[in-house]
Automatic annotation (TrEMBL):
It is found in: Golgi apparatus, Golgi stack membrane. This is UDP-glucuronate 4-epimerase. Its EC number is 5.1.3.6. The keyword rRNA processing does not apply. It comes from Spirodela intermedia (Intermediate duckweed). It catalyses: UDP-alpha-D-glucuronate = UDP-alpha-D-galacturonate. Its main location: Golgi. Keywords: Isomerase, Membrane, NAD, Transmembrane, Transmembrane helix.
């Protein structure tokens, strides 16, 4: 009789195998957990390192004057600013700022251009970059007129290697950051609220931009920048206001402005004196006379005259209330103004103040110049040239000039600028308008009659004598932002 199978060994073997499986499973689980933990920790460390490099923490250090500001490597109060698509304050942004600001010629300047996407700002930035200076732009791209035109200018600047930081001139933290990152030798301050009539609808915008914004910049330059830069800034021929002497000279009185815009620019000249006297900032004010040309502003008369004439709309032309003379302007072509701006920058002396707003080492340079064309032209001549260039007869509605801050005549004496830095305008109105019209029709894809090109050439060849015989001496001033030759339709 056989013995029954011994199951005790089998049971023991199964229990042992089960035990081994549990042990191995536990070890595998523990190993997996460790691997996951270590991977997560490594990823977290990499993320922290990335954020530390690109977005350093805020610092609460103070300047020598006791004014709190961010340290050299600090962010602004917010890292959500936009600088043409790049976050302000990051390593990539700083590289762009430094690269754009670096001069590429011996003895070249490093220039911060405010209002860089504006009309004059764009042309000056391109000219500076072309000759090898370092240029960094600053602009808030506001909607006073169609921002798409400013974006188009920004594209031009970008192609030439000029980086435009998108920000407001009243942003003290942004300015502090810019002066921390780059030791600018010069500032070309062109940011401002433009226009004469718009002040009657939105006066606060002029106070905010033209006065508060200018003070914010001067504060940063005096107390934050090291070294303190020399500053060239845009005043306006409108400061002459109701002055009756002509042609307008820098020695004439400027205490009777005819518009709020003019008053804010006059205030800017007085504020410049204060910062020059107290902090030793080198300051040069430029009084522009009705600047025009390609990439100009749509709210200016020559620009919307061109638009309305091509569209067959009626243009409303002003005549003086006294009825004795035509409204006339000292139209100044953009290329001439750019030469004047660069001349002022080239002859600007170093500031004498101590970084942090300390006691100045001595007197600093303080200047003001007219930049005009010296040849006032009646509005009727402006319209006639445009008719010739466009090959279209304008539909005109002549009305008396309203009391809205506009002035009837402007005429610049530029002998001071000529003597100090060789300023000499060379472009007559017919030549300048031909260049503007060519840009305008190309930009908008407009076809004009072929015959108008021939007419334009003959108009240009006789423009010098015409401008001389039709020269009108003015008894009041106007500004770069002139839109007063007509009423917008």
């Amino acid at each position: 009789m056989g013995f029954p199978p011994d199951t005790s060994k089998t049971v023991k073997l199964e229990r042992y195998n089960s035990y081994l499986r549990r042990v191995n499973s536990t070890k595998l689980l523990a190993a997996s957990s460790k691997l996951i933990f270590r991977s997560t920790l490594l990823a977290a460390l990499i993320l922290v390192l990335f954020l530390t490099v690109n977005y350093p923490p805020l610092s609460s250090s103070h300047s020598s004057s006791g004014v709190p500001y961010a340290s050299h490597r600090s962010l602004l109060s917010s890292s959500l600013y936009s600088g043409g698509g790049a976050a302000v304050g990051g390593a990539s942004w700083e590289r762009q700022v430094r690269q754009s600001s670096t001069a590429h010629r011996p003895g070249g300047m490093s220039v911060l251009v405010t209002g860089a996407a504006g009309f004059v700002g764009t042309h000056c930035s391109l000219a500076l970059k072309k000759r090898g200076d370092g240029v960094l732009g600053l602009d808030n791209f506001n909607a006073y007129y169609d921002p798409s035109l400013k974006r188009g200018r920004q594209v031009l600047l970008s192609k030439s290697g000029v980086f435009v930081v998108e920000g407001d001139i009243n942003d003290a933290a942004l300015l502090a950051k810019l002066f921390d990152v780059v030791p600018f030798t010069h500032v070309l301050h062109l940011a401002a609220q433009a226009g004469v009539r718009y002040a009657m609808r939105n006066p606060q915008s002029y106070i905010q931009s033209n006065i508060a914004g200018f003070v914010t910049l001067l504060e940063a330059a005096a107390k934050r920048a090291d070294p303190q830069p020399a500053i060239v800034w845009a005043s306006s021929s409108s400061v002459y206001g109701l002055n009756e002497a002509n042609p307008f000279s820098e020695s004439h009185r400027t205490d009777r402005p005819a518009s709020l815009y003019a008053a804010t620019k006059k205030a800017g000249e007085e504020i410049a004196h204060v910062y020059n006297h107290i902090y030793g900032l080198s300051l040069t004010g430029l009084r522009f006379f009705t600047v025009y040309g390609p990439w100009g502003r749509p709210d200016m008369a020559y620009f919307f005259f061109t638009k309305d004439i091509l569209q067959g709309k009626q243009i409303t032309v002003f005549k003086p209330a006294d009825g004795e003379r035509e409204v006339a302007r000292d139209f100044t072509f953009i290329d001439d103004v750019v030469k004047g701006c660069l001349g002022a920058l080239d002859t600007a002396e170093k500031s004498t103040g101590m970084p942090g707003g300390g006691k100045k080492r001595g007197p600093a340079q303080l200047r003001v110049y007219n930049l005009g064309n010296t040849s006032p032209v009646p509005v009727s001549r402006l319209v006639a040239i445009l008719e010739s260039l466009l090959g279209v007869k304008a539909k005109k509605n002549i009305v008396r000039m309203p009391a809205n801050g506009d002035v009837p005549y402007t005429h610049a004496n530029v002998s001071l600028a000529h003597g100090d830095f060789g300023y000499q305008p060379t472009t007559d109105l017919a030549t300048g308008l031909r260049k503007f019209v060519k840009w305008y029709v190309d930009y908008h894809g407009i076809k004009i009659p072929v015959s108008s090109a021939t007419t334009a050439s003959s108009s240009s060849s006789s423009s010098s004598s015409t401008s001389e015989t039709q020269r009108v001496a003015g008894d009041a001033a106007d500004d770069t932002e002139d839109s007063s030759l007509s009423a917008a339709t």
